[in-house]
Amino acid sequence: MTNLAVDLPGLRLKNPVMPASGCFGFGREYSDFYDLNKLGAVIMKAATGEARLGNATPRVAETASGMLNAIGLQNPGVEQIIASEVSFLEGYHVPVVANVAGSTIQEYVTVAEAFNKTPSVSALELNISCPNVKEGGIQFGSDPDMAAKVTEHVKAVSHLPVYVKLSPNTSDIVAMAKAVEQAGADGLSMINTLTGMQIHLASQKPTLANKTGGLSGQAIKPVAIRMIYAVKPHISIPIIGMGGIAEAEDVLEFMLAGASAVAVGTANFTNPYTCPEMINRLPGVLQQYGYESVQDAIGRGHNE
Amino acid sequence: MTNLAVDLPGLRLKNPVMPASGCFGFGREYSDFYDLNKLGAVIMKAATGEARLGNATPRVAETASGMLNAIGLQNPGVEQIIASEVSFLEGYHVPVVANVAGSTIQEYVTVAEAFNKTPSVSALELNISCPNVKEGGIQFGSDPDMAAKVTEHVKAVSHLPVYVKLSPNTSDIVAMAKAVEQAGADGLSMINTLTGMQIHLASQKPTLANKTGGLSGQAIKPVAIRMIYAVKPHISIPIIGMGGIAEAEDVLEFMLAGASAVAVGTANFTNPYTCPEMINRLPGVLQQYGYESVQDAIGRGHNE
Amino acid sequence: MKERVDMTILSVKEIALDTMEMTLHHPYIAAAAKPGQFLYVLAEGHTLRRPISIASIDSEQETVTILFKIIGDGTRCLARLKPGMTLDTVGPSGNGFALQETSLQTALLIGGGIGVPPLYGLAHALHEQGVNVKTILGFQSKAHVFYKERFERIGQTYVVTDDGSLGHHGLVTDIVDEAGEFDYYFSCGPVPMLKAVTHQLQDQPGSISLEERMGCGTGACLACMIRDDSASGYKKICSDGPVFGANGVIL
Amino acid sequence: MKERVDMTILSVKEIALDTMEMTLHHPYIAAAAKPGQFLYVLAEGHTLRRPISIASIDSEQETVTILFKIIGDGTRCLARLKPGMTLDTVGPSGNGFALQETSLQTALLIGGGIGVPPLYGLAHALHEQGVNVKTILGFQSKAHVFYKERFERIGQTYVVTDDGSLGHHGLVTDIVDEAGEFDYYFSCGPVPMLKAVTHQLQDQPGSISLEERMGCGTGACLACMIRDDSASGYKKICSDGPVFGANGVIL
Ligand SMILES: Cc1cc2nc3c(=O)[nH]c(=O)nc-3n(C[C@H](O)[C@H](O)[C@H](O)COP(=O)(O)OP(=O)(O)OC[C@H]3O[C@@H](n4cnc5c(N)ncnc54)[C@H](O)[C@@H]3O)c2cc1C
Ligand SMILES: Cc1cc2nc3c(=O)[nH]c(=O)nc-3n(C[C@H](O)[C@H](O)[C@H](O)COP(=O)(O)OP(=O)(O)OC[C@H]3O[C@@H](n4cnc5c(N)ncnc54)[C@H](O)[C@@H]3O)c2cc1C
Ligand SMILES: Cc1cc2nc3c(=O)[nH]c(=O)nc-3n(C[C@H](O)[C@H](O)[C@H](O)COP(=O)(O)O)c2cc1C
Ligand SMILES: Cc1cc2nc3c(=O)[nH]c(=O)nc-3n(C[C@H](O)[C@H](O)[C@H](O)COP(=O)(O)O)c2cc1C
Ligand code: FES
Ligand code: FES
Question: Is C51 part of any known ligand binding site?
Answer without folding.
Answer: yes
